[in-house]
Amino acid sequence: MVKRAAMLSVSLFFSSSSSSSHLLFLSKTLTKRTCFSSLATMSINLNAHAFAGNPIRSKTLKAHEPLSPSSAFQSLKTHLLQNPETTSLPPPPKSPLFKVLPFRKGRPLASSSITGNNDDDVPSWHLGWISLPDCKYFLGKCGMDLTEDSLVYLGSKVEDDVVYWAVDVSGESRLVPELGNKQFCFVELRTLMVATDWSDSIAMGELAIAGHARALLEWHNLSRFCGHCGEKTIPKEAGRRKQCSNESCKKRIYPRVDPVVIMLVIDRENDRALLGRQSRFVPRMWSCLAGFIEPGESLEEAVRRETYEEAGIEVGEVVYHSSQPWPVGPSSIPCQLMVGFFAYAKSLEIKVDKEELDDAQWHSREDVRKALAVAEYKKAQKTTAAKVDQMCKGVEKGQSLSADFNVESGELAPMFFPGPFAIAHHLISTWANQDVPTDGVEAGSKQPSSSILNL
């Protein structure tokens, strides 16, 4: 069956790390409920996935607190009404600092800098936050008014007294040269994902903020009309939800999340893993199987159904691994939630559905380990960071990212997998670099052979 999997970005082109304490708790809970005890001891040694760990999404603030969405929104309206040249209104009371992140066609504004003085220092990208007055100024120069309904609340930092907002400026092309003169550039979120140093917690936090913002803005674009009566919708709660403008309807609409199962199917007897290729993958890249969850279906049922539909393999036990927000798919799917599993095969004969996959094959643990050891993920990250730096300086160079996955001798590796910003990478590397426990006895976990996997 051909499904939304055709649109699914589980090429997961490049990569991530995994999960925090609440995910580990969920992992243990789901494992106890869905697996035999011999599998419950599989260890997960992970940090935070890309797009998770957003530093400005803290606990929900009460409405009366100054940095809560409602309080910040009221303060925002007061600031937007102020015009020092024409207004006789009194200045607004002391309020938090507002920072705005513009997006154009799903691309966040970014800048780049090099902190060191050596020629081999790698540049690092930063989100292009601008102040509220500067945002009004730039948009005003282009003939565009900034209103409170065009801004979406992202979160706050109470310790710094700062509130963060996002705004979609896709309709105004004149902003590109205006901001370009300040060495800002609108960059694809997927490019920023690859360019992020996954060992840098600050950079990973900025990537999570950008992912959250893109998901919200794309959802706003998709939900301009009520699905019940067809009338226009209006933003509410500082853009965190929408409501139908029809007085007889007033349907509440909340941001959309699309859950996806992604699974590494394992042949336990022959110590192999099933990997698939899609037609849009770059040459030599293999990844996990994946697919959207259907209505009325459990996660485990989705794993078994998708594996059988795509590769003809029957699955028995299903073990939860971790989950990852994935806001870099098509704009029609604002934010996928990738829910990762190990799935244990009951049958071994592969029957590929060519409408779903180009190919699917069993790969030995040894071959997977070799591929992980030679793929130069760090090189790809550095190359892409340099590309973003050139873009922000107004000089964009063409670069094939697939060319960075070479062995040290310069020869192409026989295969490689999505890098450390994709949950697929961590499903594959976790299996490849540990002994699978049997008969209820936990086996010792093996450390990855390459330092790039020690995230």
From TrEMBL:
GO terms for molecular function: metal ion binding; NADH pyrophosphatase activity. Residues 255-385 form the Nudix hydrolase domain. Its cofactor is Zn(2+); Mg(2+). It catalyses: a 5'-end NAD(+)-phospho-ribonucleoside in mRNA + H2O = a 5'-end phospho-adenosine-phospho-ribonucleoside in mRNA + beta-nicotinamide D-ribonucleotide + 2 H(+). GO terms for biological process: NAD+ catabolic process; NADP+ catabolic process. SUPFAM superfamilies: Nudix (SSF55811). Pfam families: NUDIX, NUDIX-like, Zn_ribbon_NUD. The keyword NAD applies. GO terms for cellular component: cytosol; peroxisome. PROSITE patterns: NUDIX (PS51462), NUDIX_BOX (PS00893). Its EC number is 3.6.1.22. Keywords: Hydrolase, Magnesium, Metal-binding, NAD. NCBIfam families: PRK00241.1. Belongs to the Nudix hydrolase family. NudC subfamily. PANTHER family: NAD-CAPPED RNA HYDROLASE NUDT12, NUDIX HYDROLASE, NUDC SUBFAMILY. This is NAD(+) diphosphatase. It comes from Gossypium anomalum.
